[in-house]
Amino acid sequence: MSATKGIGIIGTGNIFGQYFDTIAKLDWADLLAVADADQARAEAVGQERGVPATSIDGLLADPAIDLVINLTPPAAHVEVDRRIIAAGKHVQSEKPLALSLEEGKALLAEAGQAGVQVGCAPDTFLGTGLQTTIKTIQDGRIGTPFAAAALWGGPGPEPWHPNPQFFYLPGGGPILDMGPYYVTALVAHLGPVKSVLARNLASDRQRVVGSGPLKGTPLKVETPTYAAAILEHYSGALSTVTLSFETWASGNQLLEIYGTAGTLQLPDPNWFSLKGRIFEAEGPGEWVELEDAAGFVDSGRGIGAVELLRAVDVGRTPRTSGLLALHVAEILFAINTAQPGDGPIAMTTKPEVPAVVPLGADVATV
Ligand SMILES: NC(=O)c1ccc[n+]([C@@H]2O[C@H](COP(=O)([O-])OP(=O)(O)OC[C@H]3O[C@@H](n4cnc5c(N)ncnc54)[C@H](O)[C@@H]3O)[C@@H](O)[C@H]2O)c1
User: Fold this and answer.
1) pTM exceeding the 0.90 threshold for the entire prediction
2) Centroid of ligand 1 to alpha carbon of 71 (angstroms)
3) Phi, psi for residue 21 in degrees, rounded to 5
4) Are residues 222 and 195 in the same domain?
5) Do 79 and 145 fall into the same domain?
6) Which of 60, 126, 188, 202 is the most buried (most CB within 10 A)?
7) Per-chain mean pLDDT for the chain
């Protein structure tokens, strides 16, 4: 890795601390500045963490900053990304990449013209948990994978998030908020998706903020809060996906891949280092926990951003590339906007599946 890299972060809210912790571990990259539309918040967070807080324009004008991480709410992602691109800096955005396919495609075209990279969360699939299950498939241990089932449901984030309105505006909902973890995992394991058949709904339950200074405030709901979908992968595999903010309790959360010679139970894709399990047709007749066999060890949110810096340095596609995020977003938009009577919706994007991360690789040299 050449000279020390400079990183800036725009958006110093709830998720900021996890990114801060990842960057703080590196000796070849420094967090040089933070900024936020709420200047007072940026200053408070900057002071707490010992990082200079500046205006957004000031951060973008800093020639020492190579990459800017965008941790704003979904509706601001594209607007903020475009300012970062116009400043000639690489971008790593929180998910989703954009609020529409057209917007996402235009964003990547703009980055291409400016000669910068746009990467996007989630990066959880680069941890040992999901990298190990990907490698297990590639090693042939479940034979030919032909199907997957993903089911995630909760009551919605308003019991714990202090400012949850954005989860119910366009760009939020279970599909665009939690869907990226599940669909990225499915694409990383089974390859890109050819078509999507889906239905969605929203109940008439009145939601209110459940904690913090805004407790009791009613929330507007402008996005579906439940969806069921079938994804047809180019490989021929079928994934069934259920995503819900309507579920008070569920006996099962599920992310499994079925193969001709066994079943893989993937760990929760919102985390980096949990372990998956395998049931092999010719095995001991019970689930066996997988030993770590691939992935960045003990990694956290932000690993995708620093992997992008490394990829730029050596001239290859980042593993959390904009093209992968655009494909995942196209699948999620199809699920989110499907109307009664719609048949399968053909996908127009088809990314390369990122290479497996060797076990314990150093992000500075991978
Ligand atoms: N909170 C989580 O657990 C979590 C987990 C994973 C991913 N994310 C994602 O991270 C992003 C941020 O989530 P959060 O929970 O930190 O939100 P948050 O509301 O706590 O923080 C967002 C921050 O962005 C600032 N902001 C809003 N619009 C802006 C703009 N146009 N320019 C600059 N700053 C702006 C706000 O002032 C706020 O400080 C979202 O995309 C979310 O999906 C959140």
Assistant:
1) yes
2) 5
3) -60, -40
4) yes
5) no
6) 126
7) 97
Domain that holds residue 37: 5-123+306-316
Q: Which of 15, 124, 223 to mutate to test the pocket of ligand 1 (most atoms within 8 A of CB)?
A: 15
169 Cβ closer than 6 Å to some ligand 1 atom: no
Please give the pLDDT value at position 8: 98
CA of 349 to the centre of ligand 1 (A): 27
Our answer on whether the CB atom of 304 is closer than 6 Å to any ligand 1 atom is no
Q: What is the pLDDT of residue 251?
A: 86
Say what the pLDDT of residue 1 is: 53
Say if ligand 1 is within 6 A of residue 12 CB.
yes
Report the CATH number at residue 285.
3.30.360.10
Average the pLDDT over 121-129 and give the result. 98
For residues 91 and 163, state if they share a domain: no
pLDDT at 3 over 80: no
For a pocket test of ligand 1, which of 14, 161, 182, 272 has the largest count of ligand atoms closer than 8 A to its C-beta?
Answer: 14
Task: Give the pair of three-digit tokens for residue 23.
Answer: 């960057």
d(Cα 330, Cα 102) in Å, to the nearest integer?
A: 10
Q: What is the largest CA-CA distance in the chain?
A: 61
Distance CA 106, CA 102 (A): 6
Shared domain for 165 and 100, answered yes or no, is no
Q: Which pLDDT score, from 0 to 100, does residue 68 have?
A: 98
Q: Mark whether 13 and 117 lie in a shared domain.
A: yes
Q: Which residues pair with 29 in a beta bridge?
A: 5
Side-by-side strand order, sheet with 67-70: 29-35, 5-10, 67-70, 90-93, 118-120
- Residue 160 in this model has a pLDDT that exceeds 70: yes
How far is ligand 1, taken at its centre, from the CA of residue 260, in Å? 42
Number of domains in the chain: 2
Average pLDDT over residues 198-202: 98
